[in-house]
Amino acid sequence: VESDDKRRARLNMIAHLLDSLPYHDVPPPVLELPDRPESTGYQRSPRDLQTYVPDHAANL
Predict the structure, then answer these.
(1) Cα–Cα distance measured from residue 30 to residue 6, given in angstroms and rounded to the nearest whole number
(2) What SS3 state is found at 44?
(3) Nearest to 3 by CA among 13, 16, 17
(4) CA 54, chain centre distance (Å)
(5) Sign of CA dihedral 42, 44, 45, 50
(6) Per-residue pLDDT tens for 9-21?
(7) Model pTM?
(8) Taking the mean position of all CA atoms in its chain, how far away is CA 1?
């Protein structure tokens, strides 16, 4: 593998490795979810008492 550009060399090696492995699609099993329990009157705490992570992506 030519490795003058390490990023491309890594991608080429990953692609080559994945192409050399036999694989087939595996369908996911059907999930059966139980019914949701009835609401018990949960009250969310006020927003000023909660901690938030800054949304840096909104400023891009």
Answers:
(1) 42
(2) coil
(3) 13
(4) 20
(5) positive
(6) 888 889 999 999 9
(7) 0.39
(8) 30
